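Quick start: what a row looks like.
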Amino acid sequence: MNFKKKIQTKVGRYLLEREVKSVKSQKKFHNLETATSIGIVYEYKSKEEFVIIEGLIRKLNEERKIVKALVYINNPNLLECIPRKLTVNYIRPKELNWYLRPDSECVTDFIKREFDILIDLNTNNSIPLAFVAGLSRAMYKVGMFSKRNKQLDMMIKMPETVDLENLLKEIMRYLKEVKAK
């Protein structure tokens, strides 16, 4: 990581922590049975992972859930690989401000939406996705354990090298098993 990127990352993390403290959202526990709306954030790294996410979206839609997904595409070369029928909104590097906070209409809309559940699949601790998850007004936020994920309501402890498919299986297992009050 070059010097400029290190500074951007440190400033971004610092500002993220400050902004997350000011987020006012109605906290309410939801599981897959009680949720009607679900937000998903993840970083697009490969076509194979995208197929997994599309499968999840399709499955949740079949269960009559309203699903919105927001994808961060860090590598501009991957823009060419995006399937033509994109079922999600995405963030490109040019839509980030200097300290890596995403700044676009689709991000603002996603953050303002009061999802019952937000599924954070940010396995790389990407700052743009951390901003989205941290500032989201979702009622219940779930994702992979990380010392930096203070904004999540439920964290699943997984090896740092976990692949998206296994992380998603564990998250979905917990969201099915946990009972709402």
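That is the whole record. Helices lie at 3-21, 47-62, 105-112, 127-135, 164-177. The beta strands are 37-43, 66-72, 89-91, 117-121, 140-144, 154-156.
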